[in-house]
Amino acid sequence: MALLDDIAEKKRLLDKARPLPMRVVTDIADRFELELTLSGLGVEGGPLTAAEVKTLFQRGSPALRNRDPAMQRLALNHRKALELMARLSYQPGGIVTERTIAAFHGLLYAGIDEGAGRYREGPLADPDAVASPDPAKLRVSMSALSGWLRRTEPSPDAAFEAHHRLMSVRPFAAGNAATALMLCNLLLNRSGYPPVFVKADDRILFADLVERAWSVGDKTPYRELMMRFLDQSLELCLVSVANGFPDPTDVMEVDESA
Questions:
Q1: Residue whose C-alpha is closest to residue 248's, from 9, 13, 3
Q2: First to last CA, the chain
Q3: Per the CATH hierarchy, to which homologous superfamily does domain 43-243 belong?
Q4: How far apart (Å, rounded) are the C-alpha atoms in residues 100 and 117?
Q5: Strand ranges (E), the chain
Q6: Does a cis peptide bond (omega within 30 degrees of 0) precede residue 135?
Q7: Which residues are CB-neighbours of 5 under 8 A, at least 6 positions away?
Q8: Which residues of 2-19 are buried (b: 16+ CB within 10 A; e: fewer)?
């Protein structure tokens, strides 16, 4: 319960500080753009560093020597997918469906995979995948997920469940992990929370718990890890808020009517 209490208190402080000064909004957006891109690459096995991703963002095209061009393109595509996520986050009345999921994947893998945005017809592309859900059941499973999304109100638990359900289906030949994080973060944003990201030190544990939640049905460790990621994201926001005020203690005293 201590973690849940911490999350509730950090969310309260963040809400109290709103509306945020533009310099704080920009700082938070820049921080999350980098962290989320590194996370999206990381869960797909990408080896790029923060410095390399910044270079790609500055140049706007694959320009790194001795780095996989496809992974460089994925980093740039991820930025475009984040722009879509941001637009959809400000449309709380819009419906999130399997078309939303396909749109995320289509942006992420544009120019990389001919199957971008389309469901796979065979096994997963990763030869090391523990399991490959039957492609014959994909459309039924995705239709069921789409129906569930229509009926579900955005919340952290709904976001984590949506991630779990999409990773249980794995509808695309490659890129399911990055796409599932996009879906998760869209629902988090719509419920008033910041997005979550997976740091390099947590990637193996994250992959193991995602797999455990699907293979044996034990979602508790997975949910606890996702809540820790959410706490991490709220902390990032509060640090930016504190740095954006003349006196860091102002974040505790900010006028709610501002």
A1: 13
A2: 32
A3: Fido-like domain (1.10.3290.10)
A4: 10
A5: none
A6: no
A7: none
A8: eeeebbeebbebbeebee
Q: Which helix (H) or strand (E) holds 161?
A: helix 156-169
> Count of alpha carbons within 13 Å of 200, Cβ hemisphere only?
6
- Cis peptide preceding 171, ω within 30 of 0: no
Could you tell me which of 201, 162, 168 has the C-alpha nearest to residue 181? Answer: 162
Distance CA 32, CA 61 (A): 20
Task: Please tell me the distance from the alpha carbon of residue 35 to that of residue 198, in angstroms, as a whole number.
Answer: 8
Which residue in the block uniquely carries the two structure tokens 């949506």? 162
Residue 53 CB partners (closer than 8 Å, separation 6+) = 34, 37, 38, 41, 75
**What is the DSSP track for 212-244?**
HHHHT---HHHHHHHHHHHHHHHHHHHHHHHHT
Domain boundaries, the chain: 43-243
pLDDT by residue for the chain (258 residues), tens only, comes to 699 999 999 999 999 999 999 999 999 999 999 999 999 999 999 889 999 999 999 999 998 988 999 999 999 999 999 999 999 998 767 889 999 999 999 999 999 999 999 999 988 887 666 667 788 899 999 999 999 999 999 999 999 999 999 999 999 999 999 999 999 999 999 999 999 999 999 999 999 999 999 989 999 999 999 999 999 999 999 999 998 755 444 444 443 333
Q: Which burial class, exposed, middle or buried, applies to 138 when counting CB atoms under 10 A from its CB (0-12, 13-18, 19+)?
A: middle
Looking from the CA of 136 toward its CB, the CA atoms found within 13 Å total 0
